[in-house]
Design brief:
Blueprint: H1 6-14, H2 20-33, H3 36-46, H4 52-65, H5 68-84, E1 87-88, H6 90-151, H7 166-199, H8 202-214, H9 224-228, E2 235-236
Antiparallel strand pairs: 1-2
Length: 243
């Protein structure tokens, strides 16, 4: 099951190791019948999760932990509440209006980061789920090939290779090809499904482009600074403690 939690996905990724023994078994049979396409497929599977996927997960996890914009909005709100208890006047009104716009921008920015986190981690975990299933297909193919050597009484890599009748040899090669065809088909199906699933995130991709171009910015202070910065335009509320 796909998880959108980047921390859990990263932990899961560290537990997945490439099955070297199964890879070697498949290469052994591929070399025997000259199935160079299968060897090329194995080479690609070996580096499928190298580097960039881990970086994407680390990035998603970093975004998931990021709360500076929310923290800043809380500070502005707390300051406004403190001032509200004792002050009024046009300077306070100006500050109150500006702080409200600033908090709105900060909150929208936090929402954008949350959206980015979900999209990046969903793409990464979609790839991880596909990789897990590819490893399973690789293991199944190796197991099927291992059964063939027993069925046809062949020990590959040994100096003793029991002779096969012409018909048996053909059956043996056909059985290998059949196992490879299933492996190839399973890999293609899994990769096609992954592309489809990631394709379904195109809307999110477009949304990310929108986030990049419309990421909310803190409004310019402008002439508000002149009003807010003028002590005579602040008024203490009746009965308020000036301290």
């Amino acid at each position: 099951m796909t998880t959108s939690d980047p921390g859990q996905a990263a932990a899961e990724l560290t537990t997945m190791t490439y099955p070297e023994a199964a890879d070697a078994k498949i290469r052994e049979y591929a070399d025997l019948i000259g199935a160079h396409g299968i060897i090329g497929l194995l080479d690609k599977l070996r580096v499928f999760v190298a580097g960039n996927l881990e970086k994407a997960l680390r990035l998603a996890e970093a975004f998931a932990r990021e709360s500076k914009l929310k923290d800043a909005a809380d500070i502005v709100n707390d300051t406004k509440l403190s001032l509200t208890a004792a002050w009024h006047g046009d300077a306070f009104d100006q500050y109150s209006m500006y702080s409200g716009m600033a908090v709105d921008s900060l909150n929208k920015g936090q929402v954008s980061i949350t959206t980015l986190t979900k999209t990046v981690s969903t793409v990464a975990t979609t790839v991880i789920d596909t990789y897990k299933n590819l490893l399973l297909a690789l293991g199944n193919c190796a197991a099927n090939l291992a059964q063939l050597s027993g069925k046809f009484a062949i020990v590959l890599g040994s100096v003793v290779v029991p002779p096969l009748a012409v018909l048996s040899a053909k059956d043996f090669v056909d059985a290998i090809n059949s196992a490879f065809e299933k492996f190839w088909r399973d890999c293609n199906t899994l990769l096609a499904s992954m592309i489809t699933n990631i394709g379904a995130l195109v809307g999110s991709g477009l949304e990310l482009t929108a986030i990049e171009t419309t990421f909310p910015k803190i409004p310019d202070v402008g002439t508000s600074a002149e009003v807010v910065g003028e002590p005579r335009r602040w008024r203490i509320k009746p009965g308020a403690d000036p301290s």
